[in-house]
Amino acid sequence: MATKKKSYDGFTEAERDAMKERAKELKSTEDPAEAQRAKIATMADADRVIAERLSELIAEIAPELTPKLWYGMPGWVKNGKNVCFFQDAAKFKARYATLGFSDKALLDDGEMWPTSYALLKLTPAIEKKIVALVKKAAG
Questions:
Q1: Where in this protein does the record put region Disordered (predicted)?
Q2: CATH no., domain 14-138
């Protein structure tokens, strides 16, 4: 009797890798800011430029948010809780990078509000929007 091959519709390989990265992050004794810089350095050029600038902006406008890795992505935390993160396009083979916010971000606006934003490049106008979002998110 032939054995039927099982298919699994659960997590993708990229999602499983992100979970493994998170487990490593929780055990790591490496400086979180240094780990974040190292991760950003591995990104494709366009996303690396955005991630580096986001790191600069967030440090300037919300010093209460500290850099850290979050599921293998650059994240920024307050009181140990993730507030926002940058997902490079390659992370899940997307066509754009994303600036995302967790449920700890104070972005509530009525009954519905966005929690992530596609980023193709940073311009002064986009940076202005990001500054407002991060300030609000950080409280």
A1: 1-37
A2: 3.90.1150.200
Phi, psi of 31 (to 5 degrees): -60, 125
Residues 6+ apart with CB under 8 A from 75: 36, 67, 68, 69, 82, 83, 84, 85, 86
Long-range contacts of 59-65, Cβ-Cβ distance < 8 Å, separation of 24 or more: 61/131, 61/134, 61/135, 62/134, 62/135, 62/137, 62/138, 64/138, 65/134, 65/138
- Distance (Å, whole) CA 35 – CA 83: 18
What whole-number distance in Å separates Cα of residue 70 and Cα of residue 51? 14
Give the predicted TM-score (pTM) of the model: 0.84
Q: Kindly list the domain boundaries of the chain, sorted by start residue.
A: 14-138
Tokens representing 136 are 């609000």
Residues ≥6 apart with Cβ < 8 Å to 127: 53, 57
pLDDT for 20 = 86
